[in-house]
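Section 5.1 Outputs to date
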Amino acid sequence: MDANNFDCIVLGAGIQGSYTALHLAKNKKRTLLVEQFVLPHSRGSSHGHTRIIRKAYEQDYYTRMMSECYQLWAQLEKEANVQIYRNTGMLIVGKEDCSAFRSLRGTLLRNNVPMEVLSPEQFASRFPSVRLPPGESAVIDKTAGVLHADRALKAVQDLFRGLGGVIHDGEKVVDFTPGSPITMTTNSGMYRAQSLVITAGPWAKSVLARTGLQLPLQVLRINVCYWKERIPGTYGIGRHFPCFIGVKQHGAKHEIYGLPSNEYPGLMKICYHSGSETEPDERDRQTSQEDIAILSSFVSKSFPGLDPTPAVVEQCMYTVTPDSDFILDQHPSHSNIIIGAGFSGHGFKLAPVVGKILCELALGKTPSFDLSPFRITRFQSLLKSAL
C-alpha cells in the first residue's frame, strides 16, 4: 500500500479531531491525523489542564449526548490507565426569573440527572466562602466534575497511534482537491483519502473557504484567569469544593464559570464565557481586558476569599456559531468531506460522542444521534448572504 494513501484524513489534532481519528482507527480504517503545529501546543482550543464536565445544559440533546460521553470517558480511562475525570459536582446559581437558569434546572429534572436544590440557608451552610445574591437560587449537578484535559488529549492520541494511526504534526495544509479520492497537499507531502474530516478549530472557517463554503464562524480570544486564595485551600478540590456556573450574575451578559483550585496550588480558575473577536493567527495581538474587569467585579462580590486581581492569565480561543450549537455535517457539495466545527467553548466534554458522530459520517453510517440541531442548513440565510 502506498504510504501516502489513507481511508480517511482528519485535519486538526485537537480533542475533536483526535477522538474522531481514534474512532476511525477502532473501525480498522487507515487514518492520518494532520496538525499544523508541533504537538503538544497551546495555540488552539484543546490545551490546558482542566475542563468542566456536566450534564446540566439548557438543551436536552446535549444532556442525552453527555450520558454516553461519561461512559466513553470511563472507557478511555480504562484503556489508557490514567485518571481523566474527577467528580466534584457543579453549583449552578441564577435568578428564578432567568430563563437560562430555569432551563438548566429543568433539563436536569426531565432527564433524571442526580441533583440537589439548595435553600439559601443550606447554601450558606454548605458554602460559607461564597456569597449568594439575594433572590438567587442554587442547584447542584451531582454528576459534574473536572476533566484533566491535557491528560485526555495525550491519552486519545497515544491510543490512536497504538492502533496503527498516523500523526503528522508540524504540517500545514497548502491545498486540497475534493474528489474521490480527496487529495491533500501540505508543506511536507501529498496524501490521498476516500474521506476528509475537518476539525480545524479556529482555522475551520479559512480552511472551508477554500471549498467555496463560508460558514458563520467567529473566533474569540478567551482570557483564562486564575485567582489567588487568601487562605490556601478555601476553594480547593481537596476540600470538595465544586465547579460552578453563575448564570448572568451581577448583570453579566454571559455565564461565568469556575473550577476548584487544583492545577495551580492556591489558585482558582474563574473565566468569562466570552471574549474579544480575533483572527486565529493573531490571537496574542488582541489585548482587550473587558472580560477581566467583569470577572474582577464578580469575584469581589461573590468570592470574598479570593484576591479580585487575577494572579495568572492564560489564553485560548473559542470558535462560535450564531446559536452556540456545533456544526456536525457533510459538506453540502462534497459528501466525503465531513465538518466538525463551531464548538463554541463547550465542546471538550462532548468530544467522545462528537468523534463517534464524525466517524459515522465519514464511513457513511447512520449517525447515533439526531443531527438536526447541528446541520449547516440552519444557517441557510447567512450562507446565502456570505456567498
